[in-house]
């Protein structure tokens, strides 16, 4: 087996996504993080910004590169982050040892997101940030859930709804596609197609008369 075949065996399969789609995802992520930075610096000290923006950066990959994925949907995005933030803050208040607190916060966040069907991988980073993000974050206590987390979630969600729905090949969230392809619309479409199939065309009538 050649080296190229061995590499292709373990490497990613060729992407069917167009270069334009990739550029749109990158630009959407760029603008979302710029907005998050502008919002977050109103509530956090400069040294705490990287911690919060890191988890939102991970969310940007999901929301703008794979908007139709189950982990990218609004419920997972919002609830996953808020639930993880709550768990991270609670663990930080109850456990003094950073090593134990960090491990516990992330593991509990995963378990809670699973239970609530809100699994969103960046939520693990949100929980971890609440423990190891420094005094600028820990001093906020449960206000950390509101500012900057909830505010950032609102900003990014609004931006995701805009950019992922003005483009022709995208829709967000997945439920919008179900509304667009509603049973009523499908029924009307099927009725029209049936009528078209059953209707007598002029050419059919002409052929019948010619044979007679």
Q: Which bin fits the share of residues in helices?
A: over 70%
Number of helices: 11
Regions with little confidence, pLDDT below 50 for 5+ residues: none
Mean pLDDT: 85
What is the structural class?
Answer: mainly alpha
Q: Would you report the number of β strands?
A: 0
Q: Main beta sheet: strand number and arrangement?
A: none
Q: What share of residues are in beta strands?
A: under 5%
What does the overall shape look like? elongated
Distance between the termini: 70 Å
Sketch the topology as an H/E string, one letter per element: HHHHHHHHHHH
Radius of gyration from the alpha-carbon trace, in angstroms: 25 Å
Task: Characterize the structure shown.
The structure is a single chain. The chain has 212 residues and is mainly alpha-helical. The chain has helices spanning 3-10, 19-40, 49-65, 74-94, 98-115, 122-132, 135-138, 143-166, 174-180, 183-198, 202-211. The radius of gyration is 25 Å and the shape is elongated. It starts with a helix and ends with a helix. The model has no long low-confidence stretch (mean pLDDT 85).
List keywords for this structure.
212 residues, mainly alpha, elongated
Task: Give a brief rundown of this model.
The chain has helices at residues 3-10, 19-40, 49-65, 74-94, 98-115, 122-132, 135-138, 143-166, 174-180, 183-198, 202-211.
Layout: helices, strands, pairs:
Layout: H1 3-10, H2 19-40, H3 49-65, H4 74-94, H5 98-115, H6 122-132, H7 135-138, H8 143-166, H9 174-180, H10 183-198, H11 202-211
Helix pairs in contact: 2-3, 2-8, 3-6, 3-8, 4-5, 4-6, 4-8, 5-6
